[in-house]
Amino acid sequence: MNIAVPPTCLTGQVVLDLGQLHPGPHTAMLLQQLGATVIKVERPQGGDSGRALGADTFAKYNRGKLSIALDLKNPDDQTVLKGLARRSQALIEGFRPGVMDRLGVGYGVLRELNPALVLCSISGFGQTGPYAQRAGHDLNYLALAGYWAVPSQVDDHTGRPNVRLSDYCGSMYAALSLVVAMMTARLSGQGQHLDVSLHDAMTAWTIPGIDSMVRKTGKDIEKMGHVMPDNDLFATADGRFIALGILEEKFWDNLRDALVPDCPALGATDFATRPDRLRHKRRLNALLKTLLATKTLGQWAEQFGTRDIPWSPVLEYDELLDDPHVVARGVSHASDDGGSRVVDFPVKFSGGIAPHGGPAPALDGHRNQVLRWLATGDLAELAR
Question: Nearest 5°: CA angle at 188, between 185 and 189?
């Protein structure tokens, strides 16, 4: 049964995805979830590098896209890409700066063909600057953006984040900017070139903390108000972890009342207010660590009960998908092909939004459809 989906400002907009691995494909996926049609342009030999990492990894960001294979060093295939760009509203690419120009399909050329086209170039360090040609991946951008420059815990450590933060940060900025630029082009008839740097994106997130904290205090956590003894992760007796998010005094009062029977020292006046707790942060943090390690996660869950405390278990991989809130919110659903789960756009639109899904495309699997659209301009040719 076909479900009628209300159109969005991206309905009927065609986006060419020349990206590989994570940032570019994720950006294109976000636009697709918001209503755009995405044509994935891949190398004939092996396609997107993400394919080499496994079908499930490739599917994460490429479900529902159309695929055509083009060798951009081949003049005939360059001509095809130029034709696609002439009919499309946006093109996303993730080459190193200068590569599109060397291939003869840079912004200057594409703008002549389609003045309303928005070209979004996503790179590690941007199109300009001393690092522009530097190789890098997520960890490099985090390191150079000062991600680890601001301590966040009483016993702080440098550890690898468990998600690709700079990739996601950059792709979110790219998608937001693309929607604005595409809507502007629709009004003005003029496209533009978006220069998205993953390093810039992460730096925009880290500078406020560096500027407001580290530059004023050094790395002395005693002077850092955001490093709190009761807002942290704590190990339990069974090797699990509890996250405490204590900020407001009422939550400290509720936590203290729950824990004082096991640790009377927590009721001391030294910890009565937020300023008090910050002055004695190392001692309080040590008390909480020692106490919370004496019982299992389940025992603490029972002890906290229905008290109004911002605490949560640190969920394991096999618990997340069955979490009742995740299920109720419908953040993801099982794929029809039995592969990796489909993650839907995580914002609820009261007017509705197209369901995300469908299989990931086979390499060059939609060549005929794409070429028919190129010849006719009829979007119906791109419909499955």
Answer: 65
The predicted model scores a pTM of 0.92
Distance CA 233, CA 289 (A): 9
Contact at 8 Å (CB) between 381 and 91? no
| Calpha distance 23→152 (Å, rounded) | 27
- For residue 268, give both structure tokens: 């001391």
Q: What is the pLDDT of residues 68-102, one digit of tens each?
A: 999 999 999 999 999 999 999 999 999 999 999 99
Q: Report the residue count for the chain.
A: 384
Work out whether strand 241-245 and strand 311-313 pair parallel, antiparallel, or are unpaired.
Answer: antiparallel
Cα–Cα distance, 359 to 363 (Å, whole number): 12
**Separation CA 157–CA 227 (nearest Å):** 13
191, two tokens: 């496209």
Query: Which strands sit side by side in the sheet containing 37-42, from one edge to the other?
Result: 66-69, 37-42, 14-18, 90-93, 118-123, 193-197
Predicted confidence (pLDDT) per residue in 216-258, tens digit: 777 777 888 888 999 999 999 999 999 999 999 999 999 999 9
CA–CA gap between residue 237 and residue 189 (Å, rounded) = 63
Instruction: Find tokens 């927590």 and name the residue.
Output: 266
Q: Which of 204, 176, 200 is nearest to 125 (CA)?
A: 200
How far is residue 277's CA from residue 259's CA, in Å, rounded to a whole number? Answer: 16
Q: How far is the C-alpha of 271 from the C-alpha of 42, rounded, in Å? A: 60
Whole-angstrom Cα distance, residue 239 to residue 298?
11
Residues 6 or more apart whose CB falls under 8 angstroms from that of 282 comprise: 154, 222, 229
Pseudo-torsion of CA 293, 296, 302, 304, nearest 10°? 20
CA distance 133 to 89: 28
Residues 6+ apart with CB under 8 A from 322: none
